[in-house]
Amino acid sequence: MALRRAVSLLLRPRLRAPVPIPALSKTQNPLLPPRRHFSPLPPPPVPAASAVAEEAEEAFEAAKGTKDLLSAFSRLEAVLPPSDKRLALACLKLGQHLEASGAADPSRVLSLALRSLGILEATPNSTASHSDAVSLAMALHLAGSASFDLSRFHDALSFLSRSLRLLSPLLPSKDGAASGEERDDDAEGFDVRPVAHAVRLQLANVKTALGRREEALADMRACLDLKESILPPGSRELGAAYRDLAEAYATVLDFKEALPLCQKALELHESTLGKNSVEVAHDRRLLGVIYTGLEQHEQALQQNEMSQKVMKSWGVAGDELLHAEIDGANIKIALGKFDEAVTVLRNVSKQVEKDSEMRALVFISMAKALANQEKARDTKRCLEIACDILEKKELAAPDKVAEAYVEISSLYEMVNEFDKAISLLKRSLGMLERIPQAQHMEGNVAARIGWLLLLTGKVSEAVPYLEDAVERMKDSFGPKHYGVGYVYNNLGAAYMEMDRPQSAAQMFALAKEVMDVSLGPHHSDTIEACQSLANAYKAMGSYALAMEFQKRVVDSWRNHGPSARDELKEAIRLYEQIKIKALAFLSSENSAIALPEPQEKE
């Protein structure tokens, strides 16, 4: 306390009487402002704005991690004008990094892409270069990818289509790409093919999500063409590209297109990685699926067993090997080796968890084997177990569960449980309608519901499902896909049951038109569609047209040779029947007292 008083007494006079500051003379310079570092040197000059911007740009380019990039971007953003092209490129780079690393919400990535787009699109066309076009295409690709992640598929399609239109003129010709020549007019020598590949691949994903499978396949084929022009002939990545496209074709049941692609992948992987590599095992497993689709079951089983052998030699275990074993069991069922298949499935069931999706698949395959042996009671018990497991997985994996329900419904058909089959298909359709990426399956399921309702005599209920299926399948697979032809044929049959032969004739004509293209005019199903068309014209009383199409049926079966002797005999009988009807109709027109003939039911 004494010390405080002493200090206060010493300070008091100073506070009351401040020290006077002497006035400056005219010749005396004012004092300089205080410096942070008391240096005798003059202060450094204030850097120009351009130098600050360049320094910030260099720092952004040098940044590596997400945190450093975000920090450097904030600094660059603060010193560049909002319309500066360098800011657009920085937005693009940051957006690409965030998308690749998954470090940000897709909406943040989309915001950066749109900001980049806004600046780049404002660049006058007179000053734009090829590099500007590529940057704009990359920004559009980023916007498309982010929109896809946000399930805004139509927006994504618009962005990506614009991107591809910008890149297409910059791509080298096929001859130039094959010889390794660069475009002369691209001053920077930038190869746009990898960018075009990324755009095409994302377009395929978007079109698949929209259910436009045929268009998606065209984009995937273009991706493969680009990879063939970029990668060296023996590249492992090229082999994977062949297999990916083969798998895409197999998904839409186009096994003929899938087979040569998968064989190319196998050949390439064997030559570069050896016959016992894991990649070769993957190729052989897919080959087994493709041969199964082509009903070449012996070859399918051979490929499947070779695939399993390689997997086991490499110590590959888990779901991948178990799936291959289930595939093998299904092939054995197709070959009629039911006991062998059941033995395999029992062994697999011991290796899986009680309530796993894999166990449900085992019981579905077990039911398939039992149904083929006409053991209806055991079949239904296996299907009930599978359904109990799958019901618990509906929220976690709706697409896989919906697909499994479709397979289970087909097995319920085999044991004549049609109501159960229809109920499961309706449940599957309801699930698929909530999954944007599953639109291609909706048409198939709706068509199957319609066909089963028609089969069980519920014709009026069947028609809306069949009409809906036609539109969905045309959107997904194109108007000339053979599946569309079958649905048209079933619609025609439904209209005939409803005594609407005119509508039926229109549907049968459309079915025949599609099948002529997709299956060929001499395919048995195409001939049956032509037969149905003749029957519809006969029911309408258009006997001239009925005879014309019935004559085509006769000629088509005759071209099949001795194997179609019974079909030819029946076709000739129907032709003669129509001919008699036609003659009776003509005679009735000339006779006022002619009695009407009884109508025959087809």
Automatic annotation (TrEMBL):
Keywords: TPR repeat. InterPro entries: TPR-like_helical_dom_sf, TPR_rpt. Residues 26-48 are annotated as: Disordered. It comes from the Eukaryota. TPR repeats lie at residues 239-272, 402-435. It comes from Oryza meyeriana var. granulata. This is MalT-like TPR region domain-containing protein. Pfam families: TPR_10, TPR_12. PROSITE patterns: TPR. The keyword Transmembrane helix does not apply.
